[in-house]
Design a protein that fits this description.
- The protein is an alpha+beta fold and 182 residues long.
- It has a single domain, classed as Gcn5-related N-acetyltransferase (GNAT) (Aminopeptidase, 3-Layer(aba) Sandwich).
- Helices cover 40% and strands 27% of the residues.
- It has 6 helices and 8 strands; from the N terminus they run αββααβββαβαββα.
- An 8-stranded mixed beta sheet has the order 1-2-3-4-5-6-8-7, sandwiched between helices.
- α2 packs across α3.
- The two termini are 29 Å apart.
- 25% of the residues are buried.
């Protein structure tokens, strides 16, 4: 097991107001419930077939995690309440993708911003990638606006999605603006 994976398994990723830990089988019910929330998950790919199917998906994911091909995190408050999910995947030679980002209803927007900063710190500084890539549904207007304000640049588009990129250099600049979250 890599030192990176050992470090994450021991301490997770610690933020100022949140922690992020790797998903485990016992998280299946929480993940399934989050992904079934029609308001929060409307722009994510759908899942069905219940909690048992989610358990099977997590088992396959854990194999990808062991190979360092993917990292799926539970976002928790400092009181250990599960408040969201985020995933890093499609790891390329020079870029990581992140997505499946979903937060519970009625949690502080600060948790979302802080989780985003943790994702970028992990991808850029722990994993060592020089850039990130991700896609956002065109109809997801508020998230599109947020990523544009954050400095991500649209590099292409499809009928459904905008495809973004954020470099580590751009992140270092914008991160200063969000320093109060770390």
């Amino acid at each position: 097991m890599s030192k990176i994976l050992e470090k994450i398994k021991c301490s997770g990723i610690e933020g100022k107001h949140i922690n992020m830990r790797l998903v485990e089988l016992y998280d299946a019910e929480f993940i399934y419930a989050m992904r079934q929330n029609s308001n929060r998950a409307r722009f994510l790919s759908g899942i069905k077939n219940g909690v048992e199917a989610q358990i099977e998906w997590i088992k396959k994911y854990k194999a990808r995690e062991r190979k360092r091909n993917e990292f799926y995190f539970i976002i928790q408050s400092k009181q250990d309440d599960n408040v969201g999910l985020v995933r890093l995947y499609d790891l390329r030679e020079d870029s990581f993708c992140w997505g499946s980002w979903i937060m519970k209803d009625n949690v502080s927007a600060n948790y979302a911003i802080e989780s985003l900063l943790c994702v970028y710190d992990f991808g850029f500084y722990t994993l060592g990638f020089p850039k990130a890539h991700f896609d956002v549904r065109k109809k997801n207007v508020s998230v599109l606006a947020f990523h544009r304000r954050f400095g991500a640049k649209v590099i292409s588009e499809s009928d459904l999605d905008y495809y973004f990129e954020l470099t580590e250099v751009d992140y270092k600049i914008i991160k200063k603006k969000y320093s109060r979250y770390q």
